[in-house]
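Re-run with default settings, no changes from the original entry. Doing this only to confirm the output is reproducible before filing.
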Amino acid sequence: MSGSDPRGAPSVPAIWAGLSLDRPRVMGILNVTPDSFSDGGRHTPDNAIAAGLAMREAGADIVDVGGESTRPGAEPVTPLEEQARTIPVIRALARAGILVSVDTRNAATMAAALDAGAAIVNDVSALTHDPRAAALVAARGCPVVLMHMRGTPQTMVSHAVYGDVAADVAAELAMRVATAEAAGIARAAIAIDPGFGFAKHAAHSLALLRGLSGLHGLGLPILAGVSRKSFIGALTGEDDPARRLAGSLAAGLFAVARGAAILRVHDVRETVQALRVWHKLGG
């Protein structure tokens, strides 16, 4: 139930995007791209549909479909190319009854994806990349994930300068949320993502994860995308993102223990199993 906790911080809504947040939820990552940092080139539109169906069977609550890599240094693609990659996948998964989010910065792709059956917009730029995006999301009344990032994928590394990274990210996300509300987006529709690895070095991501509970002051569901991230590689010495499963599970459970409501992950089945055990043990 929403409201305020005894310490004065607003509590997180009990439901977001139609999902009860009485337990941690899992968002499966489905990149239909040739150059994403971990699974680039793995999914074409043809086999991505099967992969999305498999994520649902493995326990994913949401399948997040993206057609543009936003890893550091990635080159942008046109909205038309992005849509050619993602819309057939989104349409098929939505028709199969899957709750689909579209991972995009472009208003035209948001509109096409929502028309094809997507229910959620997940924007790494927090609706700042495309000046038409906020008005579109407001008009459609759809749930939206606002992620923290500075600059663009091409420039964000140069913006990785913080005082207190957790406090800085919380303050900057608060501004993004206020801007979204001013554009007509209902607060109940918003979830926030601190953007691990986006304009953040490994030490920043670690400090942000340790300070994740500081985002509770915004009173919004927190989505944590720690799966296979470079800070896990820095901690473990594992250069291959696909071999960071154990570290991803540890980081994900740590995030949930500090209040993350949704984990955005590559390894759905393993994450669902870990969360079920964690929950049964009283987590």
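Residues 31 and 106 are 16 Å apart (CA to CA). The chain has nine helices and twelve strands.
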